[in-house]
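F.,

This is the one I mentioned.
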């Protein structure tokens, strides 16, 4: 009993460390290079004309992520022409969750007609840097000169189950605030979704 309790506490502390060590609102986000489903490597600095980037950690298998796929596509279509393209990152360990393998990412992106890069975080390094804990989990970045800064972290909106019942579109409101040279309010919400499957 004591051993089981100790294992549970250590697991919680380990997870909390990963999350606590991630980005906070106001932090500078470093660039990354991740493999897209088309085989190319994608970096934030590839988007020279961007005013920011909507980084979304999402995946194939999670029911919450599936429910948000159409909304993520709509978000990308609406805002990439305004300078805020979506970059989706699949964070799960494919050994723990085979449905989220790179090969299955390619299939899913084609099935849904993703309009944005769908990137594989092999080794989960970028996921840990960001401190993402769920799918989907959003990190809205604003470009200042040639550097990116975190301006919003959290959920896409306030209703994961029904788009028709959404009352507050957190990410859209945050982007609109940045386009108006204002600070997002709120700039942090709780991400709702499946926990990320970490490699052992």
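My design for it:
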């Amino acid at each position: 009993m004591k051993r089981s309790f100790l294992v549970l506490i250590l697991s919680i502390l380990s997870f909390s460390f990963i999350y606590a060590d991630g980005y906070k609102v106001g932090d500078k986000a470093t660039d990354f290079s991740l493999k897209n489903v088309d085989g190319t490597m994608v970096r934030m600095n590839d988007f020279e004309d961007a005013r920011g980037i909507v980084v979304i950690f999402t995946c194939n298998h999670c029911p919450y992520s599936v429910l948000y796929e159409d909304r993520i596509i709509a978000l990308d279509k609406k805002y990439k022409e305004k300078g805020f393209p979506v970059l989706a990152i699949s964070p799960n360990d494919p050994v723990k969750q085979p449905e989220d393998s790179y090969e299955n990412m390619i299939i899913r992106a084609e099935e849904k007609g993703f309009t944005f890069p769908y990137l594989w975080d092999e080794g989960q390094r970028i996921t840990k840097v960001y401190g993402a804990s769920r799918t989907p989990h959003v990190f809205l970045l604003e470009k200042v000169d040639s550097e990116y800064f975190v301006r919003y972290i959290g959920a896409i909106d306030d209703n994961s189950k029904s788009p028709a019942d959404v009352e507050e579109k957190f990410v859209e409101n945050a982007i609109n605030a940045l386009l108006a040279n204002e600070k997002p309010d709120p700039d942090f919400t709780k991400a709702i979704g499946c926990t990320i499957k970490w490699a052992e």
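The chain has five helices and ten strands.

Talk soon.
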